[in-house]
Amino acid sequence: MSAEAVVSKCIDEGVDVLAVTDHHEISGAQALQRRAPFQVIVGEEIRAAEGGEIIGLFLKEKISQGQHARDVVREIRAQGGLVYLPHPFDRIRTKQWPDALRAALLETADIMEVFNARSMTRTSERKAREAAERLGKVACVGADAHFPREIGPTAVLLPPFSTPESLLVSLRTARFRCQRSPRWVFPATKLVELLR
Question: DSSP assignment, residue 158?
């Protein structure tokens, strides 16, 4: 998506805070943060050596992919960021974490995703909700938007915040709007990746 398309869609949808978590890159989020008329949280989705993904929020520098999960977490924390565990039980879209490592990451994460608009299975979401409740973790939902149309239908409605710590407090009282992305987004995303 172009920055212009993202800004336009956010304005149309009334989105006043957007977390941008591109895979292995933060330059797009930083550029959007400079030009958007709303708050942009700079993040990155990092694939760890073990195969699963970890999101860092409130980042200042890019984190290299392919590191061990513990090192990714350490780098996020060193930047004062938050550790967000996306789709932790989704078996279709990502390589699964080994059970012991997933358990450790669930304990370590600041935020656990309990709904992902691109998730194909409700079982994975149920497991994530149960784990978040059991561990007392802050829950969140993600649009995982790759196309402008995906911005807005899934959203987090929460009180204002300005720091990583105040985001965690706000998320404790947040309401979630959850809507699945249409099925066509999966082949369309793959096509865009192939064309690149």
Answer: -
